[in-house]
Fold this protein.
Amino acid sequence: MSDDSRPSDCDAADRFSKMRSERASALLEDYTELIADLMAEHGEARIADIARSMGVAHPTATKAVARLKREGLATSRPYRGVFLTPAGEAMAEKARQRHRIVRELLLAVGVPADAAELDAEGIEHHVSEETLKAFAAFLGAKGAAHQR
C-alpha cells in the first residue's frame, strides 16, 4: 500500500473514536432491549435477571444500569426493579427494528437462521441509517417480487 492511499492520522483517529462511541452505544442498546424484554415478561427488570441474561457479574450490570440512568434511559425504585424511560423504550424499539431488518437480510441471502440471528446481533450496531434503508428497500422489493 502506498503512503498516498493510507488515511491520515487525523482520519484514522476519527474512525477509531467513532468505533469506540458505537461500541458504547451498542452496549446501551443491548441493555435497553433486554430490560424491555424483562419488563414485558415480568413487569420489571431486576439487576440479578439483567446480569444473568447478559452473562455478566452483578456489579457490572449495576454499573451499566447506573449509566442508563445517567443517560436518561432508565429509572429504578428502592426494592423494585429497573424501568425504561420513554427515551429508553424508544432506543430499545429502534434497536429491535434494526436487528430484525439485518436478520431478515441475512436470511434472504441464504445465511442459516442460527448464524443470521447471532451475526445480526453484532452487525445491527454498525450499520448506518442509509445502509439500513437500503436493506429494507431490498427486502421490500424481494417480497414484492415473491408476491407476483
Q: What stands out?
A: Helices lie at 9-42, 47-54, 58-70, 86-108, 113-123, 129-147. The mean pLDDT is 86. The first strand starts at residue 74 and ends at 76.
